[in-house]
Specification:
44% of the residues lie in helices and 20% in strands. With 336 residues, it is of the alpha/beta class. It folds into 2 domains: 2-125 and 302-319, ATPase, nucleotide binding domain (Nucleotidyltransferase, domain 5); 133-297, Nucleotidyltransferase, domain 5. The longest helix has 27 residues, at 237-263. It is globular and about 65 Å long.
Amino acid sequence: MYILGMESSCDETSAAVVEMSDNARVIRSNIVASQIETHRLYGGVVPEIASRAHIEAISRITYEALDTAGIGVKDLGAIAVTSHPGLIGALLVGVNFAKSMAYSRGIPLVAVNHIHGHVAAAYLSQKDLKPPFLALVVSGGHTSFYQVDDYTSFREIGGTRDDAAGEAFDKIGRVIGLPYPGGAALDKLAYEGDPNAIRLPSPALMGDTLDFSFSGIKTATLNYLNGMTQRGEEINRANVAASYTQGIVGAIVKKTEQALKQTQTKTLVLAGGVAANSHLRAALERLCADCGVWLAMPDRSLCGDNGAMIAAAGYFEFQKGNFAGTDLNASACDDL
């Protein structure tokens, strides 16, 4: 069946057509309208501007996705839309557009949790992947472990207590003058520096918990940068990037190893926008190779927000009969 997936939780408007069945997971189109250039002026996403940009783009990219896939609205078996979590104004654009299209054409509508969508992106890249497995979602808003028992059943077993890894990367990238989004530029710059140049606290909390706290390493780095500036000393941005990246990646790997032992799983799924980080991917590949665990990751092109991942997650919600009505609303929270 063909599923139209719609994503508008933050600063990407995306629509995709995915062909899903028991034997097929094929992306027929995946159109993304990015707002990076718009928000670069402000150094981060401005929610009101993001919402207006979604309104301007959503109709155009939806019909572009259908045209690229070579199908019409009448050929759709379902429409899947991100309903939560995210920026409430941005989410409302996608939810209301999807509801209108589904209602006017008599097409089943399914609501998708954005986090479940990120995990579902791995199904599109790893054709043999199926639950149960351990999922690690690392993004601008989340750094969490989930026990995935089946395609629609997620249980969080650990996560950040404050900032997320993606937000922490972007913040320091911006402070040291890297172009927005700072995390991507920081990833590249880290290869040029000494990862042991600056001593920073670990975001991995002590004890049996699988939780993180990224506010400490972020504050320590800001204090280091401010101290260097006040003393008139030159800041080696590459060393900052390398040390900061090692601190964050090292903490995630440490807790991942702990989570693998705790759950006794043999499959780890890495997902979310920060799953595209080359240092994190390489470190987890080494860990999983040592532990005899299969590391399943989406292609880098599917790590960021996109409609294809929402369509994939929507298919499994459809299979479970989890349909949404015209009373569907958006929510900024993780759980409705």
